[in-house]
Amino acid sequence: MPVEDLLDGLSPAARVATAVLPFVLAIMLRLTSGKSKTADWLITLATVWFATNVLMAPYSAGMRQGIRNLGRLLP
Predict the structure, then answer these.
(1) Long-range pairs, 57-62, Cβ under 8 A, ≥24
(2) 29 Cβ contact partners less than 8 Å away, ≥ 6 residues apart
């Protein structure tokens, strides 16, 4: 089962949680443990993960089909 099939099965709320939760957890670690290299790296990785999820979202199967349907609706 390819990863994109697994992600296509998620609800929109689950997709947002998958993108945002690592960043929130990294920020909470930073607030509780103070400034450290580990917290800084986790924040950096979580930010990259979030950006990747946001940039890749339009390329899901559902979004591609929606774009195709939009093209048919326009004259």
Answers:
(1) 57/15, 60/4, 60/7, 60/8, 61/4, 61/8, 62/8
(2) 38, 39, 42
CA-CA distances (angstroms) from residue 35 to 3, 44, 47? 34, 13, 17
At 1, is the secondary structure helix, strand, or coil? coil
pLDDT at 3 over 60: no
Question: What CA–CA distance (Å, rounded) separates 27 from 33?
Answer: 10
Q: What are the residue boundaries of the structural domains of the chain, listed by start?
A: 3-73
Query: In the numeric block, which tokens belong to residue 43?
Result: 């924040």
Task: Answer yes or no: pTM beyond 0.90.
Answer: no
User: What tens digit of pLDDT does each residue of 10-51 get?
Assistant: 777 777 788 888 889 988 988 998 888 988 999 999 988 888
